[in-house]
Amino acid sequence: MTTKFTPDHEYIRVEGSTGIVGITPYAQNALGDIVFVELPSVGKVLKKGDEAAVVESVKAASEIYAPVSGTVTEVNAELSGNPGLINSDPEASGWIYKIAISQAGELDGLLDDAAYADLTK
Amino acid sequence: MSEPVEDLKTTPLYAKHVAAGGRMVPFGGYNLPVQYPTGIMGEHKWTREHAGLFDVSHMGPSFLTLNNPSGDADADHAAVAALVEPLVCGDIKGLKPGQVRYTLLLNETGGAIDDLMVARSPLFPGSLYIVVNAGTKDNDFDIIAKAAGDKAKLTRADDGALLALQGPEAVAVLDTIVPGVAELGFMTYAPFEWNGTKLIIARSGYTGEDGCEILCEASMAEAMWDALLADERVKPIGLGARDSLRLEAGLPLYGHDLDETVSPTEAGLNFAVAKRRRESADFPGAARILKEFGGELSRVRVGLFVEGAPAREGTEILDASGMVVGKVTSGGFAPSLARAIALGFVPPAHAAPGTQLQVSVRGRMQPAQVTATPFVPHRYFRKAKS
Question: CA angle at residue B81 from B76 to B84, to 5 degrees?
């Protein structure tokens, strides 16, 4: 199991051919209290860099982009009633959606732990 | 984050914000905290329940004082009021000593150049205390000084600190530090002495809660900040919660819900167009505004309960059939209500509370229902009538 990161502060945790996507602790802290999450629909086909979801804080809306290309297989329905999970537990129960990765090679272009840590230093 | 961005002004409390972990952002030409580590949601709720301390030193406090007062208090007030009234729609002449009034500075077509507070000095005949918005203050002060000519002098006081302490416990806290403040009625002000310095304290604010706004010399600002925060009922509150609090209170924000095209009538501020001024039709844009009072209105400001994602400023408002009828001018999430709310302008035919409208958020239609404002009831202090 590996986790990769985008420069836009999404993470993708890879489990086999599926990726679990969310935003990093750094991103949730920068956004502040999340009050609404617009989830993608299951079955939606995304290209790397497409807008996949939107998280809204009290003040502003922020787009969440697809770290890799693929098809949305599941969304975190818990977030509809409890968007604050992204703040309290961004890397586990605050995940946003799962994607069936169509081009695994794209993962190589993402940041690893050390590179992402460097970016947010 | 610790060094101010160049070209941005700082307030006398800049170091205090940084020390308190404030996330500093540019606002109205100043470097100010959008939030502290508590976060917007927590800061908002704290203010509604206890007392929130805001640095509003970016705003424009000033004094307009007659150059040659006669010493007759009423005659001097009438003289200084006569200089300001041609610029605004409010009854300035009718202010009692110490009374604060919300009014609007209007252009020739009745559009709002700014909204502001004008107060009559409780002590000095022929002196007004005027507080205008940050982003508009240079222009406002030019207009007022020009109207005053050689009859009165406008003195800016925006080199000091202006603090707002807001919330149900605000006045009780401030009264322990500056005894006597609790005696102030809503929308009145008075000078106070504190540690050898003079404070101007008004029982006013822009959150919908009871509270005060405190004008203080820059050299004493940090001491006042610390004295207030020493009380455990007080937390510092950033611009983010200031905005969500005023939005819930249904109060318009200049530059968003008000601009040079919007009249007080359109903005739902009829109370600010004084009866005496309407009868004499002697304010800028009177022709248009009186017509609007008569019912000839093309748009009015409404409150909206929005279902789903917050509808932000600029979002299109549509009627039930899908025709665009207006735009959101302020919108966001209401922490006290845990739902999205917005202010916007629509034609009067769509403005009745209960009207079902829609907002288009990222291309998706969401239901929005017109509702009376304030969204959260005001809890201003009212003295029992004796």
Answer: 140
Whether A56 sits inside 8 A of B333 (CB atoms) is yes
Question: Do residues B103 and B50 both lie within one domain?
Answer: no
Residue B20 pLDDT class (50, 70, 90 cuts): very high
Nearest CA-CA partner of B379 in B235, B214, B168: B168
Q: Does B240 touch chain A (CB under 8 A)?
A: yes
For the four alpha carbons of A62, A67, A73 and A77, in that order, the dihedral sign comes to: negative
Residue of A nearest to B43 (CA): A33
B34 chain-A contacts, CB cut-off 8 A: 59
Average pLDDT, chain B: 96
Pair (B86, B144) in one structural domain: yes
pLDDT tens for B141-191 read 999 999 999 999 999 999 999 999 999 999 999 999 999 999 999 999 999
pLDDT, tens digit (0-9, with 9 covering 90-100), for A61-120: 999 999 999 999 999 999 999 999 999 999 999 999 999 999 999 999 999 999 999 999
Given CB atoms, is B332 within the 8 Å cutoff of chain A?
Answer: yes
Residues of the domain holding A33 = 2-105
Query: Are B309 and B166 in the same domain?
Result: no
Q: Do A38 and B332 touch (CB under 8 A)?
A: no
What would the DSSP string read from start to end of B287-347? Answer: HHHHHHHTT--S-EEEEEEE-SS---TT-EEE-TTS-EEEEEEEEEEETTTTEEEEEEEE-
Q: Does residue B7 fall inside a structural domain?
A: no
The total domain count for chain B is 3
Residues of B in contact with A59 (CB under 8 A): 34, 40, 240, 243, 332
Residues of chain A with a CB closer than 8 angstroms to some CB in chain B: 32-33, 35-36, 38, 54, 56-61
Q: Phi and psi for A81 in degrees, rounded to 5?
A: -90, -20
CATH of residue A86's domain is: 2.40.50.100
The pLDDT of A43-54, averaged and rounded, is: 97
pLDDT at res. B231: 98
List chain B residues with CB under 8 Å of A61.
309-310, 312
Q: Could you tell me the sign of the dihedral formed by the alpha carbons of B360, B366, B371, B374, in that order?
A: negative
- Residue type for position B310: P
**Model confidence over A16-34: pLDDT tens digits?**
999 999 999 999 999 999 9
Instruction: Write down the ipTM of this complex.
Output: 0.88
Per-residue pLDDT band at B385 (split at 50, 70, 90)? low
Chain A CB contacts of B310 below 8 Å? 35-36, 56, 61
Count of domains forming chain A: 1
Q: Is residue B1 part of a domain?
A: no
CA distance between the termini of chain B: 53
Q: Establish if A115 belongs to a structural domain.
A: no
In the numeric block, the tokens 């086909």 are attached to A45
Same domain, B333 and B210: no
Domain annotation covers residue B283: no
User: Do both B179 and B44 map to the same domain?
Assistant: yes
